[in-house]
TrEMBL record:
GO terms for biological process: monocarboxylic acid metabolic process. Keywords: Oxidoreductase. The keyword Oxidoreductase applies. SUPFAM superfamilies: NAD(P)-binding Rossmann-fold domains. Belongs to the short-chain dehydrogenases/reductases (SDR) family. The keyword Oxidoreductase applies. Coiled coil: none annotated. This is 3-hydroxybutyrate dehydrogenase. PANTHER family: 3-OXOACYL-(ACYL-CARRIER-PROTEIN) REDUCTASE, 3-OXOACYL-[ACYL-CARRIER-PROTEIN] REDUCTASE FABG. It comes from Neorhizobium galegae bv. orientalis str. HAMBI 540. One of its GO terms (molecular function) is 3-hydroxybutyrate dehydrogenase activity.
Amino acid sequence: MSRTVVVTGSTSGIGLGVAKAFAAEGANVVINGFGPADAIEATRSELDALGAGTVLYHGADMTKPVEIEDLIATAVKSFGTVDVLVNNAGIQHVAKIEEFPPEKWDQLIAILLTSAFHTMRHSIPLMKATGKGRIINVASAHALVASPFKSAYVAAKHGILGLTKTAALELAEFGITVNAICPGYVLTPLVEKQIPDTARERGITEEQVKTEVMLKLQATKEFVAIDEVAQAAIYLASDAAKSITGTHISIDGGWTAQ
Ligand code: NAD
């Protein structure tokens, strides 16, 4: 029987790569995120054709708890349960703390941290009922180390690692593992959008942002590929990873080794 996988923020970037990898394995997948309706439908039908499972789209806004509840309820109504939950949706905002708009702070914390609490609290009873489950939180190297001008992002990412560990301890005896993946810089729309802002904050060119800021500590001097993150998620969701819980896998080209 196909597993059911919910991936938040999967209309683009890393989440889309993760959803694709699970769809190709034959899972039923619920994709989520924003974008033009026709582009989302094209993505959904492309993923649906990849494997034996069915791919559905749900447009829940990760700042809205009622919509998050409906996302999980829709997975249950369509496929019976949730076997794998991937919390991935994210945005970034780059500004000094004293100039950081408070509403942006709230939005980042809601999307990057609180939404995972809501998806988890609705999915955990389902996983406990089947005696198995996998929760994978796409965190960041910024869950382990900081960078200036990213206060809300770094705070939320450090927070999701704490939530990962707490949930792992609560769920260890129920056949449910909870882990984080901590990528370094991956060239997705989220990263491309912050290049001009970082250039402005630091008074440097956009090319310098890539080479002197983003890849400065990434010892490989290369961006991480989306599929590297997707394959780590596939591994964490496999039986081979059943004793891995409450921890993270860094995929950061050596960044946090320093
Ligand atoms: P992206 O911009 O390509 O994709 C983000 C996804 O989240 C999109 O599908 C978008 O529609 C969705 N989203 C945004 N706000 C939402 C909301 N309110 N409700 C529902 N969906 C929403 O970004 P990405 O780089 O693929 O980032 C995905 C995750 O990976 C994020 O959690 C990010 O912090 C993390 N991450 C990214 C990098 C990187 O270098 N790109 C590095 C480490 C961690």
